[in-house]
Amino acid sequence: MVKKTHFSEHFDYFEDPSTGQQHREALWDEEIYPPVTYRASPPWFDDLPDDTLREISGEIYKSLQSGSHYLATFGSRTLIDRLIVLTVGDKGNFPKGLQALQDEGKLSPQEREILNPVVETGNAAAHRGWAPTEEQLAVILDTVEGLIHRLLVLPTLAEELKEAVPNRGGNASAKPGKPVVTVKDKIDAAPKDVRATYDELAKKLVAMGDDVSLHPQKHHMAFRRNRNFASVQVYNQKRVVRVYLNLDPDTVALDAAMMRDVRQIGHFGTGDLEITLKNKNDIEKIDTLIAASYAAS
């Protein structure tokens, strides 16, 4: 849809060069809905293993549609901040966070040199009223998104790829020629013991209440009440099922053999407590945790 508006005194006046006659032409402003996007979001956005990064990225691209370059620049700086927290923890400020990335080998000296001016653009936009052009903003986003893709997206997708490649001995339950790319594919191709663990867990999660609904995602199964209270992934090569619960790990007596605090670790699905189930018997050990996550959601 195009919305055209004209102010009654807004005209352009010109003279016909051959006759000398004066003319006037009404000037119209145009707005296009939805706005024209000059930069499409990356196809791997759905594979971002962190809800906050997805939400920030989504808002950045909405701001691009409205020409809000200040907001997009602030957002890009925030993406770097979130990336630092997810990979090396909260270091207090940007310089310390970038140094920690470099010290842990996650950022090369050359990448640090490239990233420095990107961070400075965020400072300039916030404190000195500077906004980048479309071309400059493209450089900022290319740099930030490239780093996020390398540090967070590729490792998780590589783990999914490893699951999709059959072992040397073959997998009797896998269907030849059928790519295993989604969690549903992985469930269908799961060995009997892994499938049994998943089915038992799914049965228990659905039975928590009449208000529970199942929402299949690309990389996980989301069990939802008012919001997700359990996100389930299947790993056939490792022969485990992982469930992420909506619980504060600080309130749980963590069993190191099967539980992990993932507040600062990117992963598919929602939930700060990761639980790895090796068989159906492990599900009984987490009954109270499942109930608590359901109640909190």
Commentary on this structure:
- This protein is of the alpha+beta class and 297 residues long.
- The protein folds into 2 domains: 45-163, Four Helix Bundle (Hemerythrin (Met), subunit A) (Up-down Bundle), CATH 1.20.120; 183-296, Aspartate Aminotransferase, domain 1 (Alpha-Beta Complex), CATH 3.90.1150.
- Helices cover 44% and strands 16% of the residues.
- It has a 6-stranded antiparallel beta sheet with strand order 5-6-7-8-10-9. The protein has a two-stranded antiparallel ribbon with strand order 1-4. It has a two-stranded antiparallel sheet with strand order 2-3.
- A hairpin with a 3-residue loop joins β6 (221-224) and β7 (228-235).
- α2 crosses α4 and α2 runs parallel beside α5.
- The longest helix is centred in the middle third of the chain and has 31 residues, at 134-164.
- The model has no long low-confidence stretch (mean pLDDT 86).
Features:
single chain; 297 residues; alpha+beta; Four Helix Bundle (Hemerythrin (Met), subunit A); Aspartate Aminotransferase, domain 1; 2 domains; 6-stranded antiparallel sheet; 9 helices
